[in-house]
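Hi C.,

You asked whether I'd gotten around to modeling the 187-residue construct. I have! Everything is below, sequence then structure, no commentary in between.
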Amino acid sequence: MMTNNYRKYILKDGTVDICRACRRPGESLRHIISGCSHLANGEYLHRHNLVARIIHQQLALLYGLVDCEVPYYKYLPVPVLENGRATLYWDRSIITDRTIVANKPDIVIIDRSQRRAVLVDITIPHDENLVKAEKDKSIVSANGLIAKSLDQHLERLSLGGWIKGQMQKAVILDTARIVRRFLSLRP
């Protein structure tokens, strides 16, 4: 990939290794796919939401909150879906009796029949942070690697293992889109 890091250290063409988006040193492929502060609230959030949409739609189907499945990239989650059996929240703050900084999980499912609520929070870290992130969240890395615990998390949500492939596909395709768009930026 023709990053500024590659041009400086491999081609040795005198390029300064500064990110063309955030203007910080170290424009490597790793920086582009998961470390650029300029891409965090746009590109990385979009990739994150693609994975969250897959899980949200499958939960909505499982609990009979939606009638039919659409491709994940066309699915637009509604903030609240509800029927007599369950309530499904998308990206909503949770009111607690004491202040909690991270009080906005990606998905919350309240299953009335089992009298339980499940908070689903998703992260898409770089491969090097996969083990650390696995302790906190259910995850697929920016390069499509899947944490060992993902099967257990999907089972707890009553979702099939086939969903992993769809999540990986969404992440890899969107990571490629991010890299293509980034490298088309002018230095």
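If it helps when you're writing up: Residues 4-183 form one domain.

Thanks,
B.
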